[in-house]
Structures are given as structure tokens and as C-alpha cells.
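Worked example

This section walks through a single chain of length 374. The input is the sequence exactly as stored; nothing has been trimmed or padded.
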Amino acid sequence: MARRTFSIGGVHPSDAKISRDCKIEALPIAPTVYIAVAQHIGAPAKPVVAPGDKVKAGDVIAEPGAFMSAYIHSSVSGTVKSIGPRKDLSGNIQTVVEIEVEGDEWKEGIDLSDTLVTDIPEDPKAIIEKVKLGGVVGLGGATFPTHVKLSLPPGKKCEMLIINGCECEPYLTSDFRTLLEKGEQVVVGTVVVGTALLMQALGVDKATIAIEDNKPEAIEHISGIVSSFKAKGGKYQGIEVLPLMKKYPEGGEKQLIDAVMHRQVPSGCLPIDVGAVVDNVCTALAVYEAVQKNKPLVENSVTVTGECFPKQANLMVRVGTPLRYIIDYLGGVPVDAAKVISGGPMMGKAVANLDAATLRRSAFPYKGTDQEDA
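Given that input, the structure is written out below as C-alpha cells.
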């Protein structure tokens, strides 16, 4: 039986998942981090700390500047050294909070254990509020504040939640590793629980976890986890895993809705206009951690890869880590590297400044030629 896919267009580049066997490794914390206050769609957050302040990992360092905005938290413990302008990945000036790292102390109340919390809160508003306080944004590339996406406009109804596990962009594998390697005690189970939390927040009974068929291990693994969770009843009953054809840009929001629901989002409209809400699989994990563990979004998985790069890697990186620190950790810039790309060969952008820091969604493959995760 043919795999589902979107109905019009698409291309079939080599997926080049040469880092697919690299387990996610925790990157040692950099001596200094630089956390931007504008790393989401909407208004920049407003700093609430000052130079000289002591912070712990998980402390709020900037508050939303408008409805379409998000909380920013410290990803480390240490001392705020400065708040001011610094060049970002593209060479543009951003306001950043510079923190000198001192140990790794976390804010009280954050649960860093692997203990899986599967009970779903009943109150959708309480879920959305914790998502907001956790600074959760979309981790598929757009960084849309998740609490805004979950706050449906009057008169709109979600018929299906789609969890995007396609990772159709060539080279990138951090979503794949997130799906595959972290079992019930860490991530795979939490992706399922995170999906159920999103369903509860949206008031929807159906959810589809969509994964391209070039990731058979992830499809099998997640399907097994979903089956075991369905035995728990409740919101878990409505979750399905759907394998999709490997075709770019399968993971694009509108293409994914077409493939899963056979509905096309009209120009100028949003997914909710056809009854859909789409979230990345890592966003589901971040929702779980914010709601069930009180852990804000302060780290994310990053793929570092490319034919000219001697060491492929998927790393768990604290937000605000300088790119040069990550690259040096893996051996430095290869002499034959033409450029470093933030994202991927299809949608990524060449990095103008290696001293720029990672945001809440950063994935950058090394490329030796002119070549993001949709």
C-alpha cells in the first residue's frame, strides 16, 4: 500500500542522514552564554534582570513583551555580566543577556528526574498557562509561541492535532534521535504524554504522529509506545502513528495537513481554518517538561553534520551557547568547509558570525558545497 503524501509538487533529494546513528550527547556547558530576548515570532521579551544579578538555570530573565511573545529563561546558573547588543547568526544586532557560568544549579521546583508523569491535568487553561510560563515555542523552525497556538480563536475548533516527526530536511537527525532513543522514562514516552497534553489543551480527541518512512526504526518504536499507552485509556486512545512518504517538503505545515487530512489550507489562512493544529515532536516534549516537570525551554537538540566534517553529532545544547564553542568541541572548522549553515541545505541560512549563540531552535549542518527543518 502506497504511503500517504501531499498532493501537489515535491522533490526527492538525497536525505543524507549521515548522523542518524549518533546518539544525542549532552554538550558540556560553555563558560559564558548569550541569551537573546527575541528568539520567537512576535514581540521581543523584556529583560527583568540586571548586570550583577545571580541566576539559576530555569530562572526567568525576560518577560513577554506582548500577547505574541514568550518568556525567556536562563539556561545556566551564574552571574549576569551584561545586557546589550550582539550579532546573531545572520549578523543582525539583537539584545542579549550575557551570563558567566558558575556551576549548574537549577531553580527550585524543576524536576530533572527521568520519572515519567502520565496523569493528564483536567483543566485546559492550566495546561496552556504552564506552557506559557515555560516559554515553550514551536521547535520545528518557526518558534511560534505555543501558548498562543493553543489559545484557539473564537469560533474555531480543532479536529485533529498533528505531531510533526517528519524531519524532511536533508542532513538533520536530531528529531529522529529524539523519537528513537529516549524510551518511556525520558522522551518517547513524554512525546506521547506531551501529545495527550496538547490534545487536552485543544479539546480534541484525535492526534496523528506523522513520521516519514525513511525512519522505520522510529515508526516501529513510537507505534509500540503508543500501543502501550492506549491501554491507559483516556486521551491516549485517540493517538495514531502515520508513516508518510519520504518527499520534501513533507514536514511543511500545509503539506503535512494535506498528507494527513487531505485538506488544503487556503492562501492567507491558518491550519486552524481547516481544523488542524500542527506541533513538532520536540515541541510535544517541551510541553511535557513544562507542564509535568516545571522545566522551561532552556535546551534543545542540535545536529552537527556534513561530508567535510570529521565527526557527526547530535547534541543537547543549552540555549545561548556560542556556535564556535560547539564546533571547537567537535574538532574545529574543517579547512575545506565552504560555509556553515544554520538549518539545512534546502531552507537554511549561511552563518555570518560563528561567535553568535544558539537560539531555542538551532540545527546546523556543515556543508562543503552550496547547499532547516520544515
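What to look for: The longest strand covers residues 78-87.
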